[in-house]
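Dear colleague,

Following up on yesterday's call, I've attached the two folding results inline so they're easy to grep. Please treat them as preliminary; we haven't cross-checked anything against experimental data yet. The first protein's sequence and structure tokens come first.
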Amino acid sequence: MFTPFSVTGCSLKLLRTGERGIVTFCKSQDERILNELISIGVTPGTTITLEQNFPLFLIKIENTSLALDTESIQAIYVRIIHH
């Protein structure tokens, strides 16, 4: 009756600690947030690991760890990498 499905893309905010995703797009009404994300290397195709989600969001891009605010995290959409 029901067809199985899986989430292939979602907001980075929904990832669990340790999960990885490939950025598919960034979406925000605030151009400042989009420019900031581009300047730190968050662009489509970039692999991101969510290292921590409380008390702040800590992401890892290549060998660099960065702390981001909730608005920035919500603007990033990823395709989850399953291993």
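Below is the second protein, in the same order (sequence, then structure):
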Amino acid sequence: MNEHEEVAVQFLTACWERKVLAATAESCTGGLISATLTSIPGSSAVVDRGFVTYSNEAKTEMLGVAAETIAQFGAVSEQTAREMAEGALLRSNAGIALAVTGIAGPEGGTEDKPVGLVWFGIAVSGRKPLAIKRIFENNGRDFIRAETVRTALQYGIDALRGAG
């Protein structure tokens, strides 16, 4: 079992122990978090659904991210990540939603938003959604996406532990 599978099992176990379903809202990972989770036998007991919202329109239509949020702050921002997580939670049966939006490269980075920048949104039922910023080393698109999956799941575990 590799590191990504181990953290996926830990996340699924944490959901199962707390009797909560999980949802994902993914942009830069294009569904890799959901794919990682659903590759684990028994994941159907806790995985509710995944939203792949690669375009700005998808973020607005599927998750309810305000068009004004994207216009003012950008798709890769604290505000968008938080709204993505909140929207996934509200539009699912989940008790926790993990959202990611970032710049996996190789192009698309700017001085303010470099390749490797990822915003993580975490929403847990009954708690205020939060967003966490990470900048991964630019070791290529696959590396950034893989680290985003691993980190999102770890943040989910941490959030569930905090939920008691």
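For the second protein, one point worth flagging: Helices lie at 3-18, 32-38, 56-63, 67-73, 78-90, 141-162.

Best wishes,
A.L.
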